[in-house]
Amino acid sequence: MKKPTSVEEYIEINDHFKTPLENLRDLITSLNMEENIKWNAPVYSINGKNVLGLGAFKKHFCIWFFNGVFLKDEQNCLEQAQEKTKALRQMRFETIEDINKPVVLAYIKEAIENQKLGKALKPERTTKKDVVIPELLTEAIKNDTSFKTAFNKLSPSCQREYCNYIIEAKRDKTKISRLEKIKAMILKGGGLHDKYKNC
């Protein structure tokens, strides 16, 4: 499929929904938003922040609300396109008769207001797992205050590396020898992989 370089071109490519797409475009552009082509489709934004987009498919056309999750959706018009899409919501139409202009306009105005208020779904920060300290290392920390101080001064990633180094050993004998090996490194304030990075 040809990539559109303008909204007019996008509508021409999807001429099976030409009139309804033009009608929606007229509604949207009446509200002074910036119009661009992004991801090969019309996208409307405020101060560079995406608010909504138009989409045309074989059997339906739609308005995408980038932060549609914040819309009240009192008319129950919105769909979540995929399970993975957390913020995005879609208002779907099959014919021009499906477009209820006052309702569509109300949703667009609410989306603009939400954008102005800065409502946006922040990407989830993946938190690193807490450090699981093996029993052998816990005992060594308990029995030696200077060793405890040195271990606590290490970054969580360095602590995790030392702990995993002991946990990953299959035999108790190996675990003990690994602990003996790392004690001096920990007391020096170094990391297990200091050759490659700083902790």
Write a structural description.
By secondary structure, this protein is of the alpha+beta class. The chain folds into 2 domains: 7-116, Aspartate Aminotransferase, domain 1, CATH 3.90.1150.200; 135-187, no CATH class. 41% of the residues lie in helices and 16% in strands. The longest helix has 16 residues, at 101-116. The chain is elongated and about 80 Å long.
List the helices and strands and how they pair.
Layout: H1 7-13, H2 18-29, E1 34-38, E2 41-46, E3 49-56, E4 61-65, E5 78-79, E6 89-93, H3 101-116, H4 135-143, H5 145-153, H6 156-167, H7 172-187
Helix pairs in contact: 4-5, 6-7
Low-confidence stretches: 195-199
How many structurally independent domains? Answer: 2
- The CATH class of the largest domain is identified as Alpha Beta
Q: What structural class should be given to the helix and strand makeup?
A: alpha+beta
From the alpha-carbon coordinates, what is the Rg to the nearest angstrom? 29 Å
Summarize the biggest pleated sheet: 6 strands, antiparallel
Order of helices and strands: HHEEEEEEHHHHH
Mean pLDDT: 88
Number of helices: 7
Quick tags:
199 residues; alpha+beta; 2 domains; six-stranded antiparallel sheet; 7 helices
Question: In short, what is this structure?
Answer:
The chain is α+β, with helices and mostly antiparallel strands and 199 residues long.
